[in-house]
Write a structure and sequence with these properties.
The chain is mainly alpha-helical.
Length: 200
């Protein structure tokens, strides 16, 4: 029988706290069981195992982050929306390092397609990029550029490797401005440049 007071939501919320306290890699079923003062088996009513727990944590964190981003970009467009999006992304990553690390794991595409958090992320991200008048495959390329830039910068900043005297926030703002210029002057791909793979 499920232990009184334990729910899937409570278990995943505790996993989120544990991730921020000790790092995403410290999130295990055993660690959570100790946190609740129960045996590991008591948690398997609520999660199917470590992989399931970590995916649930990733989806929860993704939902939290995108809602902060959505609030930041509301009513903004173009450069202002990009800066607000970037700022909220960075803020969440630095405030919640363990949860943020969870958002970087690979999630099964079918599960991602079923997730309100993932759909919301796509909606807000592509909505923010609408001002730049991009279409596929340029949209996908632009999303990849933004994600890799934001993630790389946040990961390096969190690890403390930026040693130059230049203030880190100033470099971040300059990077966002550079992204705005890149999106504004995007090297658009024409139909003749698109490579079509042969169908077997």
């Amino acid at each position: 029988m499920p232990r009184a007071g334990l729910t899937t939501d409570r278990v995943v919320a505790a996993a989120a706290e544990l991730a921020d306290e000790g790092g995403f890699e410290k999130v295990t079923v055993s660690a959570l069981a100790r946190r609740f003062g129960v045996k590991d088996a008591s948690l398997y009513t609520h999660v199917r195992g470590l992989a399931d727990l970590r995916v649930r944590l990733a989806l929860r964190a993704s939902g939290e982050q995108i809602e902060e981003i959505a609030e930041a970009v509301a009513g903004r467009a173009g450069r202002e929306a990009l800066a607000a999006f970037a700022g909220a992304y960075r803020s969440y990553a630095l405030r919640h390092p363990g949860r943020y690390a969870a958002t970087q794991i690979r999630i099964d595409p079918a599960l991602a397609a079923d997730s309100p958090a993932m759909r919301r992320t796509a909606e807000i991200t592509y909505g923010m990029l609408r001002a730049y008048d991009l279409s596929e495959p340029d949209l996908t390329d632009a999303v990849r550029l933004l994600r890799s830039t934001f993630h790389g910068y946040c990961a390096l900043e969190a690890s403390g490797v930026f040693a130059a005297p230049r203030e880190v926030r100033a470099s971040w703002d300059k990077a966002v401005e550079a992204l705005h210029l890149a999106l504004t002057h995007w090297p658009r791909e024409t139909a003749s440049e698109t490579v079509t793979m042969p169908v077997d």
